[in-house]
Design brief:
alpha/beta, D-Maltodextrin-Binding Protein, domain 2, 2 domains, six-stranded mixed β-sheet, 14 helices, binds benzoic acid
Length: 326
């Protein structure tokens, strides 16, 4: 081969390699929860799966524990395209699109498995379709967390015991209304501040879930675990609308189906995780009290009345969840 041909062949090879490299994309994904949390582990597993399925075209770098900011800040970054993806609490979405608040109706579902069925049903899926227009991000699917409960530093034998107590809540309207109706002083607080606040008496109790109580060691500061399963607490997979527009249709499909598969996997894994963590907590000094809807008396009806006026999708969700139980 002449020198000229060798140079030409090399130039072609370098060109091919560099265009493959420039087509490769690292997707940055943010979460508020720690790296040990099930959501973070699902994000890492999704990244590996996507890299394999796309033959290296896409990789995912996961930033847990609010490294990129709180959820409101991450949502802004998704809107500008500074962040590619997030696994975010639906609670945060509720602050922008109030209809999502209907997903937090008390006892809308009985357990995490049922929440998976409802969130993959027609009403919740239709709500996903509103996100590009209303928040500038594409919703690729829902996942779950263990059901909401309370960990209280005071004995909790009946609903009256909660009255007048300072209760930590995630800052969003459905849960704020729930605790106000219970007569508690709801104290909005990110999950990262909960341990210290419970330890120093800034709050008397917390609205949380079994995974947080065990993995973030909140049980060290509580007397009673009110195992009430009063709400679900979904997570949503989001892709920046700006990034989405630049993706070829086949890649959109690959990214959204892979993310959805791993998010949906959380519904099954939490059925197991919740049981395991409950067993762990039962081995501590915390008194576990099981409570159902009857524990809350007329609070549930009052909540429903307020939210049915605020968001009509609640009526559709109630119908769908009733049909799941037939
Ligand atoms: C909470 O605010 O309780 C929470 C936040 C993220 C994941 C799960 C729970």
């Amino acid at each position: 081969m002449s020198f000229k041909r060798v140079v030409t062949a090399l130039a072609v090879a370098i060109g091919i390699a560099s265009s493959a490299a420039s087509a490769a994309k690292e997707l940055r994904l943010g979460l508020i929860v720690p790296g040990t949390h099930e959501w973070s582990q699902a994000a890492v597993a999704m990244g590996k799966d996507l890299e394999k399925k796309s033959e290296g075209k896409y990789s995912v770098t996961v930033f847990p524990a609010g490294q990129l900011g709180n959820e409101a800040q991450m949502l802004q970054q998704l809107q500008t395209g500074a962040l590619d993806m997030a696994f975010m609490t639906v609670a945060e979405i509720t602050n922008r699109v109030p209809d999502f608040g209907a997903l937090f109706a008390p006892y809308l579902v009985r357990d995490v498995r049922e929440s998976g069925l409802l969130l993959n049903g027609p009403t919740a899926q239709k709500m996903l379709g509103r996100l590009p227009r209303e928040i500038g991000a594409v919703g690729v699917g829902y996942g779950g967390a263990s059901m909401r409960l309370m960990l209280n530093a005071f004995p909790t034998n009946n609903v009256g015991d909660i009255k007048g107590r300072k209760m930590r809540i995630t800052p969003f309207p459905p849960v704020r209304d729930f605790y106000q109706l219970l007569g508690a002083a709801s104290t909005p607080m990110p999950v990262t501040d909960v341990y210290d606040s419970l330890a120093n008496g800034q709050v008397d109790g917390i609205d949380a879930d079994m995974e947080l109580v065990w993995r973030m060691k909140f049980y060290e500061r509580g007397k009673t675990l009110l195992y009430s399963s009063h709400m679900m607490f979904p997570v949503i997979g989001l892709v920046s609308g700006r990034v989405w527009q630049q993706l070829p249709p086949a890649d959109r499909e690959l990214i959204s189906s892979t993310a959805k598969q791993h998010l949906n996997g959380l519904f099954d894994s939490y059925m197991q995780v919740e049981k395991e963590m409950l067993k762990n907590i039962q081995g501590t000094n915390v008194n576990v009290k099981v409570a159902g809807p009857e524990f809350f008396g007329d609070t549930l009806e009052k909540w429903e009345e307020i939210w049915l006026k605020r968001t009509p999708v609640l009526a559709d969700l109630r119908k769908e969840s009733a049909a799941l139980r037939k």
